[in-house]
């Protein structure tokens, strides 16, 4: 966005806890305006009390299209527009792919993918009119490292990243920016209250998913307050990054996944090239 010290209006989903709460607090402390959204606005009332002129608490259920339209309209009425949309609300779901329950997977995608898409579409008209705006989609390094038991969560985040890439190419000529954020493991309730788990279990997957105690979860090294500061710094850069990794574990996961994929591609490179038509059989347009 590159606005430096200019006052901007942020619309942050999932402001009641975790990274969303930390980001809301940090952006307000930096002097910006924030529409703090949550399903229960009582969870952010203390912020509107502390920042009565620059904070607005708005009820939002990202799975409800009418709720999205109402919340975006409220933001525009209060502050005149949205400069930075942060799609942060989301939760995890643990299940082997075979164990995935249809209703649970539908809810996961409704919150982690279709909700953010609807918010992007609701915020874009105002951003386009003003010729400025930044969309920040909070993904996860899980979209890249695809851990066992996290297939559906990884799929939802990968879908969000794929859409973000195309969206960026569509809106950059209009003066807008899109940034994907991939956090690693942070000290939030993501593994607790913000996590869902399939009630269907198949014994064959117990060991690989760690249900037999053979695999421990790694440490949660990330500090939400530091992540919030990093996001604000990136958002205020003259050219915000297309992808921002948060945490040394996210960085390590990124490099490991990229190297592993490159090795696999190179292993079958000759087979990949073998599908091209013979040069002599190419048309003039194809050459």
Percent helix range: 40-55%
Largest sheet: 7 strands, parallel
What class, by secondary structure content? alpha/beta
Q: How large is the count of helical segments? A: 9
Considering the protein shown, what is the CATH homologous superfamily? NAD(P)-binding Rossmann-like Domain
Gyration radius, to the nearest Å? 21 Å
CATH class, please? Alpha Beta
Q: What fraction of the residues are assigned to beta strands by DSSP?
A: 5-15%
The average pLDDT value, as a whole number, equals 92
Total individual domains: 1
Order of helices and strands: EHEHEHEEHEHHEEHEHH
- The best one-word shape is globular
Please name the CATH topology. Answer: Rossmann fold
The total count of strands amounts to 9
User: What oligomeric state do the depicted chains represent?
Assistant: single chain
Strand order of the largest sheet: 3-2-1-4-6-7-9
Question: What is the CATH architecture term?
Answer: 3-Layer(aba) Sandwich
Description:
The chain has 287 residues and is an alpha/beta fold. The protein has one domain (9-261): Rossmann fold, CATH 3.40.50.720. The protein is 43% helix and 15% strand. It is built from nine helices and nine strands. It has a seven-stranded parallel sheet with strand order 3-2-1-4-6-7-9, sandwiched between helices. Strands 5-8 form a two-stranded parallel sheet. Strand 2 (33-38), helix 2 and strand 3 form a beta-alpha-beta unit. Helix 1 crosses helix 7, helix 3 (65-79) packs parallel to helix 4 (102-130) and helix 4 (102-130) runs parallel beside helix 6. The longest helix has 29 residues, at 102-130.
């Amino acid at each position: 966005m590159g606005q430096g010290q200019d006052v901007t209006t942020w619309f942050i989903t999932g402001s009641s806890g975790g990274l969303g709460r930390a980001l809301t607090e940090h952006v307000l402390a930096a002097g910006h305006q924030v529409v703090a959204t949550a399903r229960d606005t009582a969870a952010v009332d203390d912020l509107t009390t502390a920042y009565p002129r620059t904070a607005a608490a708005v009820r939002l259920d990202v799975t409800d299209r009418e709720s999205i339209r109402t919340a975006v309209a409220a933001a525009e009425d209060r502050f005149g527009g949205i400069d930075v949309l942060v799609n942060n609300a989301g939760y995890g779901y643990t299940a082997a792919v075979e164990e995935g329950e249809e209703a649970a997977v539908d809810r996961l995608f409704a919150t982690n993918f279709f909700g953010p898409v609807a918010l992007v579409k609701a915020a874009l008209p105002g951003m386009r009119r003003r010729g400025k705006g930044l969309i920040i989609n909070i993904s996860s390094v899980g979209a890249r490292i695809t851990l066992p038991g996290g297939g559906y969560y990884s799929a939802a985040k990968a879908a969000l990243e794929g859409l973000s890439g195309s969206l960026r190419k569509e809106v950059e000529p209009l003066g807008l920016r899109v940034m994907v954020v991939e956090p690693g493991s942070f000290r939030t309730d993501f593994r607790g209250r913000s996590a869902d788990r399939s009630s269907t279990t198949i014994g064959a997957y117990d060991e690989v998913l760690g249900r037999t105690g053979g695999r421990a979860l790694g440490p949660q090294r990330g500090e939400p307050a530091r992540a919030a500061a990093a996001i604000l710094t990136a958002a205020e850069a003259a050219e915000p990054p297309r992808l921002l990794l948060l945490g040394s574990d996210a960085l390590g996961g990124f490099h490991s996944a990229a190297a592993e994929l490159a090795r696999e591609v190179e292993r079958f490179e000759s087979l990949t090239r073998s599908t091209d038509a013979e040069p002599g059989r190419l048309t003039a347009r194809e050459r």
